[in-house]
Write a structure and sequence with these properties.
- The complex is a heterodimer of chains A (about 130) and B (about 400).
- With about 130 residues, chain A is mainly alpha-helical.
- Chain A has a domain of about 80 residues: Cytochrome c-like domain (Cytochrome Bc1 Complex, Chain D, domain 2, Orthogonal Bundle).
- Helices cover about 55% and strands about 0% of the residues of chain A.
- Chain A is built from five helices and no strands.
- The longest helix of chain A has 24 residues.
- Chain A is globular.
- The N and C termini of chain B lie far apart (about 80 Å).
- In chain B, strand 9 and strand 10 form a beta hairpin.
- With about 400 residues, chain B is mainly β.
- Among the domains of chain B are: about 140 residues, 7 Propeller (Methylamine Dehydrogenase, Chain H), CATH 2.130.10; about 80 residues, Thrombin, subunit H, CATH 2.40.10.
- Chain B contains one helix and 32 strands.
- The chains are: A mainly alpha (about 130), B mainly beta (about 400).
- Chains A and B meet through helix 2 of A and loops of B.
Chain lengths: ~130, ~400
């Protein structure tokens, strides 16, 4: 005797559908707004992007040796591709991989902030 | 004769008060600002406060800030050249702004927005022409150094119709300027002898030149290459031979390390018959003999070098590093070829500038909002001052040097 509960086919379909919808909603929500780092780390990341990414992309991110990173310039670029560029760099160009300096989720947060218009640099905290 | 005076003079006691008052008022008028006092310009300099579009005018004898000049636009990656009399600074901003600052009066005397995106500039040996090198639109532009009137433009467009960013601009004799094209990999020399009708010679260079230098004697031009293992070198006394590769294959096929900031090349890399050049993608300073142009050594350093600068006497090379190791500075002794000192002068050391005889070095500590001053003999800090996000430091002694 097998005591496996039989789920009515209709209910199974509904469950799968609802589940898929939930996953999709969750995924798109996280894509729209990647998890924000804590305040201290956010300040560091903003400083890094403005100052150190800025050495190639410009302090105002309007471009330099590297292309502009303004919302207009990034508008038609795929989000995931931009995150991959930050994480892994772009072979054949001077863009280096930043994984290790930023995590993948921080890279996603940075790209999201860039696409919205990057915040101003408040400087680094005084502590070393 | 009884000559009765109709003019009434104040009693002598009152004069005793009035005269000193007049003297004091006159002297007050003539000391509005310390800069209007008679002074030389040989010990002056400019510190770029890049985030605020501002420069500080400093003097190196008393190590003090004389004045602050505002309104220079986006100064990320700003650079400065000086007029021959070392009175005027020409400041090239990232946003294409070219600003002429009178160091003695501490004010802007000319400003043009000459491009969308600019990386620096240079001044002719006769001091009459200032040339800006631009990323967008890619090319160079020449200006009258007195009026900043545009004289000529040379778009960096190659035979294939492609426009390149211009890097590594330097002054040559006879109103000539040399520069490299990042995308096209060419080296161009433009002659502005007839300023409104410039003539350009083109040479093959190498893959993705990122910066370049002309040696202090003005004979050799060396372009650092991002896209290949090696540097391109042009002998300016034998132009018909074209450029050749030096230090080819210095990476020996090893995978390059990430480069978080491009090195900067200037003639300060040359000392004692050798050039000390930052490797790209390797944590090394490469040493090349300037007679044979063969590698004679390589020195392991802490991280990716950005500046490798000889102290003016050539005895030491001071090296700073790319993010994230930009809080370190290392000193190489040129006799032993060894790193002798590893310093932490501050956070975010972006730039180092030696006094002309090398006894002091001024360093910008961007992330500490400070300029720190070290004695090069003791390697100890001797002074410093607050400065908002300082980047480049430029002393007027550059006015007398080729390639600066």
């Amino acid at each position: 005797m097998e005591c496996v509960m039989k789920v009515p086919p209709l209910l199974a379909h509904v469950a799968v559908f609802v589940g898929a919808a939930l996953v999709a909603a969750f995924a798109s929500a996280s894509e729209a707004k990647p998890a924000a780092p804590d305040d201290q780390r956010a300040r560091e990341l903003i400083h890094i992007v403005r100052q150190d990414c800025g050495s190639c992309h410009g302090l105002t991110l309007a471009g330099g040796l590297g292309p502009a990173l303004t919302p207009d310039a990034l508008a038609d670029k795929p989000f995931e591709g931009l995150v991959a560029t930050v994480v892994s760099g772009r072979p054949g160009t001077p863009m280096p991989p930043f994984l290790g300096i930023v995590s993948e989720s921080e890279a996603a947060w940075i790209v999201d902030q860039l696409m919205r218009g990057f915040p101003p640099d408040g400087g680094l905290p005084l502590s070393r | 004769m009884s000559s009765q005076s109709t003019v009434r003079l104040a009693p002598p006691v009152l004069w005793a008060v009035i005269l000193p008052a007049i003297v004091w008022l006159l002297s007050a008028c003539s000391s509005v600002s310390p800069l209007t006092e008679l002074r030389g310009s040989g010990d002056l300099g400019v510190v770029i406060e890049r985030a605020d579009g501002r420069v500080k005018i400093i003097e190196t004898t008393g190590r003090s800030v004389l004045a602050t000049v505002d309104g220079l636009g986006d100064l990320s990656h700003a650079s400065v050249v000086f007029s021959r009399d070392a009175r005027y600074a020409f400041v090239f901003g990232r946003d294409g702004g070219l600003t002429k600052v009178d160091l003695l009066q501490a004010r802007i005397v000319g400003r043009v927005l000459q491009a969308g995106n600019s990386i620096g500039g240079s001044i002719s040996h006769d001091g009459r022409i200032v040339v800006a090198q631009n990323y967008a639109p890619g090319g160079v532009k020449a200006f009258d150094a007195t009026t900043l009137e545009l004289l000529a433009e040379v778009p960096a467009i190659t035979a294939d119709g492609r426009r390149s960013k211009v890097v590594g601009l330097a002054d040559l004799s006879g109103r000539r300027f040399i520069y490299s094209l990042f995308e096209a990999g060419e080296i161009w020399i433009t002659d502005f002898s007839d300023p409104r009708n410039p003539q350009t010679q083109r040479f093959a260079g190498g893959k993705q030149p990122y910066d370049a230098l002309v040696t202090p004697d003005g004979r050799h031009y060396i372009a650092g290459l991002f896209g290949e293992d090696g540097l391109a070198m042009l002998d300016l006394w034998n132009l018909d031979r074209g450029s050749r590769k030096i230090l080819a294959g210095y990476g020996k096929g090893e995978a390059p390390l990430p480069v978080y900031k491009m090195p900067h090349l200037r003639g300060w890399s040359v000392a004692g018959g050798r050039a000390y050049l930052p490797a790209i993608g390797r944590h090394e300073v490469l040493v090349v003999d300037t007679n044979t142009w063969q590698e004679v050594g390589r020195i392991a350093v802490k991280s990716q070098p950005v500046f490798a600068m000889a102290r003016p006497d050539g005895r030491e090379i001071w090296v700073n590093f790319a993010f994230p190791e930009n809080g370190w500075v290392q000193v190489i002794d040129t006799v032993s070829g060894q790193v002798t000192h590893t310093l932490q002068p501050g956070r975010g050391i972006l730039h180092m500038e030696f006094l002309s005889k090398g006894h002091e070095v001024w360093m910008s500590a961007r992330d500490d909002n400070k300029v720190v001053i070290f004695d090069t003999a003791t390697k100890q800090p001797v002074s410093g001052f607050d400065s908002a996000s300082p980047s480049g430091i430029f002393f007027t002694t550059r006015a007398a040097r080729t390639g600066f």
